[in-house]
């Protein structure tokens, strides 16, 4: 049996950070219940209380931890110690998407001040995740930071009134990011087969050791290129459609604010 202490530490970190988020989420629910005697969204939208902002922030803490947003994003790259198919399912399409989906469902409950905070945190996470990926060489950690950046982009859209577009990008992201993780798993498996006795100095997940695979793995290469194009938002891909809708909705939102202030 192979023991991986790093995987155990990563699991502990993910558990602790998510429990912090759960605590904030629970406090937010308690505040909602105390001011409305109900947890129905329709009932909460009819309440006018300054506690709504505090409750919304507490709920948003749960979203931050679950969807790996700033400052609770560092557990997701470490979780890449798990098997790649698990990363494709949980870390690209289901677990980390739960926070964004929650935000979509309860967006009407959030006050204007909460939505501003949501946009700021989303934008900060988007930039931080993207720049952090530039400093990585592990193929799975690069994809993990890319996921953080994309989730931040969705959350920024939620706070800017582009909930429908953000939800569309959430669906699209689940498919092309899962494809990228599965492609990375295919590459890692092939490298293990090609170097069964690789030393500790040869990392099969280091992109600096992965040159020349296009001719050896043409199917994986084509699939990876298509999914990477969708991630980048290139034309004729699903990523282009959802990102274009988000940016268009945000431009309309910003224009309405500017016109209102003018």
Task: Describe the protein in words.
- The protein is built from 11 helices and no strands.
- 35% of the residues are buried.
- The chain has helices spanning 5-36, 41-44, 51-66, 75-78, 84-94, 97-106, 112-134, 139-159, 163-194, 218-232, 238-261.
- It is mostly helical.
- The run of helices and strands is HHHHHHHHHHH
Shape: globular
What is the terminal-to-terminal distance?
Answer: 67 Å
Q: Report the helical percentage.
A: over 70%
Number of strands: 0
Main sheet?
A: none
Mean pLDDT: 89
Oligomeric state of the chains in view: single chain
DSSP helical segment count: 11
Protein structure class: mainly alpha
How would you briefly describe this protein structure?
The chain is built from eleven helices and no strands. It is mostly helical and 262 residues long.
Give the SSE map.
Blueprint: H1 5-36, H2 41-44, H3 51-66, H4 75-78, H5 84-94, H6 97-106, H7 112-134, H8 139-159, H9 163-194, H10 218-232, H11 238-261
Helix pairs in contact: 1-3, 3-6, 3-7, 5-9, 6-8, 6-9, 7-8, 8-9, 9-10, 9-11
List descriptors.
mainly alpha, single chain, 262 residues
């Amino acid at each position: 049996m192979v023991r991986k202490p790093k995987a155990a530490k990563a699991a502990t970190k993910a558990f602790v950070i998510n429990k912090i988020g759960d605590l904030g989420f629970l406090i937010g629910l308690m505040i909602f219940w105390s001011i409305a005697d109900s947890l129905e969204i329709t009932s909460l939208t009819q309440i006018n209380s300054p506690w709504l902002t505090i409750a919304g922030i507490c709920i948003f803490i749960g979203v931050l931890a679950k969807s790996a947003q700033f400052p609770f994003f560092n557990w997701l790259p470490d979780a890449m110690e798990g098997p790649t198919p698990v990363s494709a399912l949980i870390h690209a399409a289901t677990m980390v998407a739960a926070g964004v989906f929650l935000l979509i469902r309860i967006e009407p409950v959030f006050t204007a001040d909460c939505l501003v905070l949501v946009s700021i945190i989303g934008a900060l996470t988007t930039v931080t995740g993207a720049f952090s990926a530039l400093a990585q060489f592990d193929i799975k950690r690069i994809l993990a930071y890319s996921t953080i950046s994309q989730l931040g982009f969705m959350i920024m859209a939620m706070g800017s009134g582009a909930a429908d577009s953000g939800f569309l990008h959430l669906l699209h992201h689940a498919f092309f990011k899962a494809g990228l993780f599965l492609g990375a798993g295919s590459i890692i498996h092939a490298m293990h087969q090609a170097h069964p006795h690789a030393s500790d100095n040869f990392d099969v997940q280091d992109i600096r050791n992965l040159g020349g695979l296009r001719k050896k793995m043409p199917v994986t290469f084509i699939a990876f290129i298509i999914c990477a194009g969708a991630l980048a938002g290139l034309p004729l891909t699903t990523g282009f459609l959802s990102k274009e809708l988000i940016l268009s909705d945000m431009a309309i939102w910003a224009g309405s604010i500017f016109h209102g202030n003018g």
